[in-house]
């Protein structure tokens, strides 16, 4: 009788594990559908990569008050740090493509 009870407990635990696995599968499938949707691609391109679409109005905010008053722009830094990625930085993209080709 004890063995039957132990086996029934194992069966119940396995059924619970199966139900959890099925729910996990459904969650992952929903995430996959969203990650491959146009909505997600646009969100990532705009939010994370800073891309714009045709027709967007682009505003460049200047941090330095002197730049707002019409003084000449400051000299760019001589050395660009490796972690200073800016999505619209043409020199960075050229450097990346050159490294890939090598």
From TrEMBL:
Taxonomically, the superkingdom here is Bacteria
- Tell me which InterPro entries the record gives: FtsL/DivIC
Q: One Pfam match, by short name? A: DivIC
UniProt name for this protein: Septum formation initiator family protein
Phylogenetic placement of the source organism:
Bacteria, Bacillati, Chloroflexota, Caldilineae, Caldilineales
């Amino acid at each position: 009788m004890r063995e039957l009870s132990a086996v029934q407990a194992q069966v119940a635990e396995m059924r619970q594990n199966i139900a959890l696995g099925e729910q996990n599968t459904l969650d992952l499938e929903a995430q996959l559908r969203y990650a491959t949707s146009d909505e997600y691609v646009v969100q990532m391109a705009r939010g994370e990569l800073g891309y714009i679409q045709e027709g967007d109005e682009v505003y460049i905010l200047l941090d330095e008050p002197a730049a707002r008053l019409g003084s000449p722009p400051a000299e760019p830094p001589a050395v660009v740090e490796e972690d200073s990625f800016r999505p619209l930085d043409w020199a960075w993209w050229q450097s990346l493509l050159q490294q890939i080709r090598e």
